[in-house]
Every structure is written in C-alpha cells, then in structure tokens.
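Input.
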Amino acid sequence: MVSRNALRWTLATLALLGASSVSAGPINFTGFVENDFNSEDDSVKVIQGAPDPLNRIVQMPEMTAQGIINGYALKDMRLSYDYQSDRLYVGLNTYSIAGNAIGNGGADLANRLNQLGGVDPANLGGNKSITVGIAGKNLNDSLKPGSTVLLAGVPADKAYAGSGLNGFTVTSYVNRGGIQNSYGSQLPNHQGTLAFSPSAAHPGFEFTIENFSKISPNLLDPAQGFWIRAYLGSPNDNPIGEESTAYMFVPSFGPQVPEPATLLSWTVVAAAAGALRLRRRRVA
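Output.
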C-alpha cells in the first residue's frame, strides 16, 4: 500500500510538472527570426509580406547582380504572445540585415551608394527607421483596422528616439505623415526591449512590448486579434527604396491551454486527490 506521505509527494511533483508547461513561455531571441518564431508552433502568428521584393523596392543593379536584396524588404512579420507575462514578441523577418540599405553587401556596394549620393549609417542612424504600427478593432467595421494605438521601433526623427538600443521606443501615435514620422509620447508601462542592433550575426529586428493587453483594453485585445503594419527605410539612401505595408490582421491569440501531457498530469492529480479524500472518509 502506498503511504499517505508518498502520495502527497507524488501529487506535488505532478502538479509542478504540469504547471511548468501551461504557458508557451518566452521567445529566446537570437536575431534569426525564422528560427526564433517557428512557423509550425501554433502560438506563433506569421503575417506574410508582399512577394517579389525586387519588383516592389528599387535598389542598385550592382546589388541585384550579386544576388543581394536590400535590408528593407520584408519577408514576413512573426508574433507570439505570452499570457502569463502579458508580453508581445515581434520579429521582422527580412531578406538580409534589417535596416541596411545595401543588405549583406560589402565595401564595393557601400562605395557605389556613396557615389550615387546615398548614405547608409550603421545602427539605424540618421533618418533610418524601422517602425511597427499596431491598431485595435474598428467598432464600426470588423473587416478594417481601427485607429493606430501605438508605434514601436526606431523613429526616423531621432528627436523622438527612446532610451532603448538604437533609440528603440514604444509610443502613442501622432499623425505626421508616415508611421516612421509619427511617434508621440512614450508609454512608460509598455516599453519593451530591442534584442539586437541588426548585423550579420543578428540580422533580424526583434523586440518586445510589455503589458500589451493593458495598452487599450477596449480596443486592443490579443484574444480577439489586432492589426499590424511596418515601415523600413530612409529618405537619404537614394536610389534604395523603402518598405511600407498596409495594415494586416493578426489572428487571435487564444487563451493558452495545457498541453496533452500537462492535462494528463492534472487529471492524475485530481483523481489521486479524490481517492485520498475518499480513503480519509472511510477511515473516519
């Protein structure tokens, strides 16, 4: 016969094992968006960019000849939301180093860009911007985005830069023509973190937004889905073009439920607890 103490320890162990897998947990950023946000994971939402980047964004013929795509062209946007921490994880998946006008190009392409009058400052400097806009639901038409609720990223006008890496910040929206120019007041309770300054070692643009569900509870609810758009570019790297997407819908992040193994653990816990309670009654 199993002792009462042994049963208690078994219940406690199963409870701990079960509790550990209830949440999907955080995303561990490495700078490689496709690896960090696995498209086969149900908790990851992949928002596809437009196809044929070379037909959408102008770049130097010398880049195309070398098989290089500029760092503004967006493959897709990937998102994950953790209910326990109320943290939104965002990754912009580009074809080359995010925010680099010449992508993965070398000194020859940098010199050619300079000859054409363009500049490509490092660390998203100058008037470069990578900006994500998020809108909530539209109370009048569920098929269209509502008003922009927040901006997150690196502003074009560095007067609005935050204290994060490369000037990363999360702010309200003030329309000044283009989301890259429309950063407003910083949202101190929602400042996340830019994981890396994009580079060959960390080519993606990955960041977090804190207390996401509390930004605008009446309009922005991860359980109901929301809208997202992006800008990547600079006005000073002619002849390289810019990426500017329309708003696209992010499907609902449904409440996280236990995995099958977790559910089984809790079922065992409940059954064992019931058996223990019944045994106590009989002894009494």
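The chain has two domains: 1-22+258-284, 23-256.
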